[in-house]
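Two quick folds needed for the group meeting slides. Do the first one here.
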Amino acid sequence: MTQNEQSNPTVLVADDEIEFASTLVARLKLRNFPATMANSGKAALAAIEQDQPDVLILDLKMPDLDGLEVLASLKENYPDLAVIILTGHGSFEAGRQGMELGAYDYIMKPVDLNLLLVKIEDAYQSRTA
């Protein structure tokens, strides 16, 4: 009877690296995850306001608002949104900071797609439990 037995969670990928984000969205769609992308922090906030996804994959380094600013804003307005932080350049500490702000988890770039799929499912399950 649970919703995810019928369909996978919807995913928004927020990353200013357009090629990376579009590739990730394409790979998620190939695995039957409804996915869209936003290429800035402001675009991510606008996209969530229009159509809230089940899970947000959020890059920390973006030119307008960084991922931690986006996360802080989202946790005020969408406390149930599951957020997975994307972090590169060995910024373990930033991932930890994201968790303290309410992110479900974080994953390092380059992304292991199978690991990311598990984290998306786990984040969605935790939200709907």
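Then this one, please, same format:
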Amino acid sequence: MRAIAMVMVAVGMTTPAMAQRTGYQAISAGDFTTATRQIEAERRIFPQRPELMLNLAVAYARTGRIADARSLYGEVLRRPAVAMDMPNGAVTSSHAVAARGLARLTTTLATR
């Protein structure tokens, strides 16, 4: 669960409704199917939001959709970097989060 927390993004998360729309609560609870459903619905409205792409990549990776996760991380890296507020209070770039996510996918594949 620690690896997930390091890549969950909570940009501007100030309300429980925002946490639900970004899939944060479902990811925290380990319910990746619900997180996928919530984030995909939100991405239909806001397809360019990096926090949605990054959280969806986490949910995809945890449900075995590695290629889809990799694609989303790549999409984030092709866009301008955005400052992201992380759940632990740190601020980091969307590119740094995506790069860590990609590295975890590579490590996961290499150890199987």
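Slide caption for protein two: Helices lie at 2-7, 16-21, 24-28, 32-45, 50-62, 66-78, 94-111.
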